[in-house]
Structure to design on (604 residues):
């Protein structure tokens, strides 16, 4: 107890040095734990989402890009496939397709153009409002609604692709019809609209006044076309699409096969390496990604051990130098009857108190950050680029 | 009572001292003078058992120090010897009261209890530091620090008090006051006082003055 008392008194007296030591030790202790926690949470989040996504169809190319865009709504977009891919699945009777169009954002949040089947496939439920029923309506994920401070009845504007591209996508003001229950998945961070609404944002569909008047040619009339930037009951009927709907772009098609046999047949249809469409089982892709992550984690562990060792040496040196400065005190203690064991107990007590302080500092930080690990990871995964 | 006979001690560096005989009786106040570097501090270390002689005997109340185990010597130092150091050697992070109690914190075999605390507070009060017991050394004057150092040496009621240039850093008024305190306390407890000093003005107050250059042979 005497050693502990003296050690505490010394640390309290040299409080600035003690704080530096404690913070440094806390960092050394907490960084590896936090890294591990975040990696584990990341692995769990990635794996869970992948396993909840049975099959993704998309243009042949990077399997990882297809999975990240189709399941996690990241910015890495694959070459789009067409709506025909989704229709073929319907026609095959082998599963339920949900086309996904994830090209655009609104206030920085990913817009996911899809069909109502997506909500059923993902078991998404509304916390308020209703699903989109008409063009121009949007359903917000829980996080998106909270962070943008938006509710049912309010509006959200899609982000312009390029302000100086006159031929590009124009912002569309969408009214919010519902908010989803939080799920702890990338769905929480998305804005869901009917896929036709996404195509309107892309410029494939549009609505405008009938501006051709008698005696005027079409070219002159087109020059003063004013396109609607918001879809209302009054102008909804004027919205129309050009071209074959089967050729309209979709980022990916999520498919829920009816059974294993159906899945096997579906996957077989897209095995041809020369075919334009590929079928990807997301869990296969993510398992490979996680294996890479674990290899990186092992590297991080090694680096952490080396950095931790260096930090421990630095802390040890700081304590040693501080001990050297106290040589006079140690001699006094020895002259007054202290033994080597007492001196050792003093040193150990100081180290123990610093480590205890570091643990007390690191523990709540680690617990707090660990409790937010899912959110942090979902941000990193969903908006990773 | 201290008795030294035929003691020889050499450091690894080759410096050595030899003392044929030295006796300090109970309650006696002895000053040790001599040029620097002749081994006066080594004499104090020999008397307190911090170092043990290569040959010869050092007896404290009839008990031979060199015959004791290391832990026994530490226990003896803690309970029977009081030290006053030249630079006071106070612990900077402890209050005046805790500095006085420091031997109880580190000394082998000493127990810090209410009696010890009362004794420490009583000494500080007697030394005029009753209102400054919570202050740390940096908040005290030189004279006050020396009084704290003397109180620390006396708190265990030592049988022998060893002072190494105890008044070397004090002004004349504080020197006299410090010596007054030491003498008063040794008179009260009957402890022997052996004080190394360069201060010849103080020598008349001691019972006996030993010229260390005559007492020992150094090489």
């Amino acid at each position: 107890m005497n050693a502990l008392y003296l050690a505490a008194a010394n640390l309290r007296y040299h409080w600035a040095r003690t704080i530096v030591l404690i913070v440094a030790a806390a960092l050394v202790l907490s960084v590896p734990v936090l890294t591990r926690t975040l990696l584990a949470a990341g692995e769990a989040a990635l794996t869970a989402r992948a396993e909840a996504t049975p099959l993704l169809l998309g243009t042949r190319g990077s399997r990882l890009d297809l999975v990240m865009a189709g399941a996690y709504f990241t910015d890495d977009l694959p070459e789009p496939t067409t709506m025909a891919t989704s229709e073929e699945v319907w026609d095959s009777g082998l599963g339920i397709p949900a086309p996904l169009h994830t090209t655009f954002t609104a206030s920085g949040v990913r817009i996911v153009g899809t069909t109502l089947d997506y909500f059923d496939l993902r078991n998404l439920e509304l916390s308020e409002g209703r699903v989109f029923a008409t063009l121009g309506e949007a359903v917000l994920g829980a996080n998106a609604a909270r962070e943008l401070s938006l509710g049912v009845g309010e509006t959200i504007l899609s982000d312009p692709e390029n302000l100086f591209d006159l031929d590009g996508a124009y912002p569309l003001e969408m009214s919010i019809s519902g908010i989803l229950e939080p799920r702890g998945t990338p769905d929480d961070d998305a804005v869901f609209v009917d896929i036709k609404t996404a195509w309107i944002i892309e410029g494939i569909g549009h609505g405008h006044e009938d501006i051709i008047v008698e005696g005027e040619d079409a070219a002159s009339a087109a020059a003063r076309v004013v396109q609607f930037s918001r879809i209302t009951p009054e102008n909804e009927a004027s919205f129309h699409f050009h071209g074959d709907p089967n050729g309209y772009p979709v980022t990916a098609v999520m498919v829920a096969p009816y059974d294993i046999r159906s899945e096997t047949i579906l996957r077989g249809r897209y095995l041809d390496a020369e075919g334009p469409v590929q079928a990807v089982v997301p869990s296969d892709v993510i398992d490979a990604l996680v294996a890479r992550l674990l290899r990186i984690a092992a590297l991080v562990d090694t680096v952490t051990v080396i950095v931790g060792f260096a930090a421990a040496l630095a802390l040890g040196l700081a304590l040693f130098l501080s001990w050297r400065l106290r040589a006079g005190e140690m001699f006094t203690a020895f002259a007054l009857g202290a033994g080597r064991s007492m001196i050792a107990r003093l040193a150990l007590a100081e180290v123990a108190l610093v480590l205890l302080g570091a643990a007390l500092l690191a523990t709540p930080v680690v617990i707090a950050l660990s409790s937010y690990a899912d959110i942090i990871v979902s941000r990193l995964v969903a908006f990773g680029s | 009572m201290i008795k030294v006979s035929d003691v020889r001690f050499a450091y690894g560096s080759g410096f050595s001292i030899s003392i044929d005989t030295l006796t300090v009786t109970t309650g006696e106040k002895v000053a040790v003078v001599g040029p620097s570097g002749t081994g006066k501090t080594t004499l104090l270390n020999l008397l307190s058992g911090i170092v043990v002689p290569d040959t010869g005997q050092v007896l404290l109340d009839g008990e031979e120090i060199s015959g004791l185990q290391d832990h026994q010597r530490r226990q003896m130092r803690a309970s029977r010897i009081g030290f006053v150091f030249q630079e006071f050697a106070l612990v900077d992070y402890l209050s005046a009261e805790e500095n006085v109690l420091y031997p109880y914190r580190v000394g082998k075999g000493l127990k810090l209890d209410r009696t010890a605390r009362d004794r420490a507070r009583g000494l500080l009060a007697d030394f005029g530091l009753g209102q400054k017991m919570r202050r740390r050394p940096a908040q005290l004057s030189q004279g006050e620090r020396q009084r704290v150092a003397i109180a620390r040496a006396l708190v265990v009621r030592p049988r022998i008090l060893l002072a190494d240039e105890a008044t070397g850093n004090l002004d004349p008024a504080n020197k006299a006051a410090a010596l007054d305190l030491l003498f008063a306390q040794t008179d009260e407890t009957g402890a022997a006082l052996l004080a190394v000093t360069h201060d010849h003005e103080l020598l008349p107050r001691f019972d006996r003055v030993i010229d260390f250059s005559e007492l020992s042979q150094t090489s």
